[in-house]
Amino acid sequence: MLLAGAPARAQQRLATGSQTPMPAAEWVDQDTGHRVVRLSPLDGSNESFYFHNRPFVSGGKDGDWMVFYHADERGKQLRMLNLKTRQVQPLTRYFRKVGGEIVAPKRREVFYQTGDSVYATHVDSRKTRLVFVFPADFRANITTLNADETQLGGAWSSDAEKEISRQYPEKKDYFRRIYEAKLPRTLFTVSAEGGQLTKLFTDTAWLNHVQFSPTDPRLLMFCHEGPWELVDRIWTIDTKTKEVKLVHKRTMEREIAGHEWFGADGKTIWFDHQLPRGATFFVTGTDLKSGKERKYELTRDEWSVHYTTAPDQKTFAGDGGYPTSVAHSPNGQWIYLFRPDGDKFKAEKLVNLAKHNYHLEPNVHYSPDGKWLIFRANFEGQSQVYAVEIAKTAS
């Protein structure tokens, strides 16, 4: 439970980001009335995970742990934060370059990759093992772990695509070039025990955003990357039968669907849905068994870069948007809680992010107990990790 047993005391009401750094690690957002806590110490850059990569591992009565990335002049490393005590511990050594946001709560391991090598470190013993080394003719990156924690997954890209990314490091420069190049990509799995690489599916579509179902060990979701209005983006593959299925087919000009994720029970894939792009905004879910869809409409200002669902799947959350985003939202820089109300969302603002630069996407996560939203932001200068309490602070 996040911050269980934290002492009750009067919290100062402040405009979030009004001072750099803020005068304390806790305050009440004066615009929303919700308690905000900086979880990470001001000791460098600290970033929580991408929105659909679950970072938590159980700690029992001593408090759950959250894995996150830290960077300073020594390099980059994975660290662990106790959500009850806010104690921070290093999990790995420093690396010049490291990636992967994969926590295995049953194995109690964290998987990550540096160069061509995949490692796993045990969160209790800190024992580290080499899981896999990609061969020279198949250099790829792991991004996800299946539900029974036996298979890692990812997508391989060609040397020609890697060269486009090298020459054009900014998304605005490489994105269209890679999409139009129609170069081969391959979905793959690697045994979490090590040593076994399986190539699943190759296509000249830009296969990306690879994530396993949280409940079905064989179900892998992926996307056709590219301009959303030009692609039927969301797909699944059965890793045993290799059957590929389209999750949502566009039905109108400039319709877009993306930033997809699985609900906690694995029965629904949810996504940002605009009919058409930049005009009308929804969060839509496709039932994977029946194919039926349900939509919740929200306003332009409530549109978020990424959305997520609560552990109990009763509420949603979003990280807001900014004036130059696809929604062109004039007042969208908020952390939001969304409660379904018929076919619409009823939104509640939790944190004012007017002082946050959305070049860093906040990427909200619900805490394991569902009582807080955890996000990253740079309104104190460097990126840090924060939590906002969903229950409003008594005035």
Give a written overview of the molecule.
The protein has a domain at 134-213 and 215-250: Neuraminidase. Helix content is 5%, strand content 43%. The chain has two helices and 31 strands. It has helices at 159-167, 171-181, and strands at 13-14, 26-29, 35-38, 45-47, 56-57, 65-72, 75-82, 88-90, 99-104, 109-114, 117-122, 128-133, 140-145, 151-157, 185-191, 197-203, 206-212, 219-225, 234-238, 244-246, 256-262, 268-274, 281-287, 293-298, 307-309, 316-318, 334-341, 344-352, 365-366, 372-377, 384-389. A hairpin with an 8-residue loop joins strand 18 and strand 19 (234-238). The model has no long low-confidence stretch (mean pLDDT 96).
The pLDDT mean sits at: 96
The total of beta strands comes to 31
Name of the top-level CATH class of the domain at 134-213 and 215-250? Mainly Beta
Helix and strand content put the structural class at: mainly beta
Binned, the helix content reads under 10%
The 3D shape can be described as globular
* Euclidean distance between termini CA atoms: 24 Å
Strand content: 35-45%
- Unreliable spans are none
CATH architectural name of the domain at 134-213 and 215-250: 6 Propeller
CATH superfamily of the domain at 134-213 and 215-250: TolB, C-terminal domain
Region (Disordered): 1-21
Domain Oligogalacturonate lyase: 15-391
Protein name: Oligogalacturonate lyase domain-containing protein
GO molecular function: oligogalacturonide lyase activity
